Amino acid sequence: MIRFSRVIGTGGYLPEKVRTNEEISQTVDTSDSWIYERTGIKSRRIAGADESAASMAEIAARQAIEAAGCDPETIDLIIVATGTPDHVYPSTGCILQQLLGAKNAVSFDVQAACSGSIFALSIADQYIKSGAAKTVLVVGSEICSRIVDWTDRGTCILFGDGAGAILLGASDEAGVLSTHIHSDGEYKDLLYCPNPQAATETNKHEAGFISMRGNEVFKVAVNTLGRIVDETLEANNMDKSNIDWLVPHQANIRIIVATAKKLKMSMDQVVVTLEHQGNTSSASVLIAFNEAVRDGRIQRGHVILLEAFGAGFTWGSALIKY
Ligand code: UT7
């Protein structure tokens, strides 16, 4: 019998505090019009002083668990994608397991920068398909505001905080159709954030902050996401017209538009959240997916393409029948 993983619940969380482009332009040499035209972003959310990746993950996860009507003790596996974990260890996954009372779950983190939630979904899908797990919680949670250099106008305009969650359950019916994940460490120097606890003499001056060669990242992202669209459709013997929704990583509206064009999709079929959220890294795809499920755009039976691109470089996609 073929076994699939199916989405049985979704959740999301955004902190209350809003930081607008106008506020940023008071501290660095930029403007609302420059940021909006080049990125599509107007504002982003900033976590409160007592919030953390785990506390935000808990809120998103509880929503997904409630939507699925499941008991946390039935969760077999928790995978948290984050580049801003509460601790070096234990993993944010273990902290979340305790917060949820999901005492039967194996828990760990995945670090694949902005592609983290697609990597986590891919792992979750393999566990369910192989029969090793029945119910898997995937969460992306990020406090990007704490690793952003607020004096660097090339990066501080982009990022925001938030968490998204998907609960997957084993099913006889098709759900996750395929996942595709890739890495290429040749590009490690275009986008990085050295760990301050493990900094070397050479990189300690930039440790703890995001460094990015934005324009170079942009070009590779557009080409790579174009390729992963083809790879995903070919693997499923599908045509562009079979896709109902594109749920892209929310890094830059120009990257999203390029991917939609490649798919010949109208922007009405693309879930865009970045205008008021910015780039929430590994959380962005899951937050967007949850929003479109909850506002009724994504309906049972729809085919959805999720994709992401991030530091590493890492990139990936998931094709899901909801
Ligand atoms: O999620 C992980 C993956 N990350 C991404 O996908 C991000 C990809 N990169 C981007 O989104 C874009 O490259 C940025 C939004 C970061 C930058 O946009 P760009 O169109 O690539 O601009 P640029 O870096 O080529 O810079 C063009 C000009 C430069 O000035 P000169 O040299 O032409 O005089 C920059 O110094 O814009 C200047 N600039 C700014 N001006 C006003 C750069 N940042 C700003 C700013 N405000 N915030």
Please explain how this structure is put together.
The strands form four sheets. The chain has a five-stranded mixed sheet with strand order 1-7-6-4-5, with helices on both faces. The chain contains eight helices and 13 strands. It has helices at residues 21-25, 32-39, 53-68, 92-100, 116-130, 214-235, 253-262, 284-294; strands spanning 4-13, 17-20, 43-46, 77-81, 106-110, 135-143, 161-171, 176-183, 191-192, 211-212, 245-248, 303-310, 314-321. With 322 residues, the protein is α/β, with parallel strands linked by helices. Oxa(dethia)-CoA binds next to helix 2, helix 6 and strand 12. Residues 30, 34-35, 38-39, 114, 153-154, 157, 214-215, 217-218, 221, 251-252, 255, 279, 309-310 line the site of oxa(dethia)-CoA (UT7).
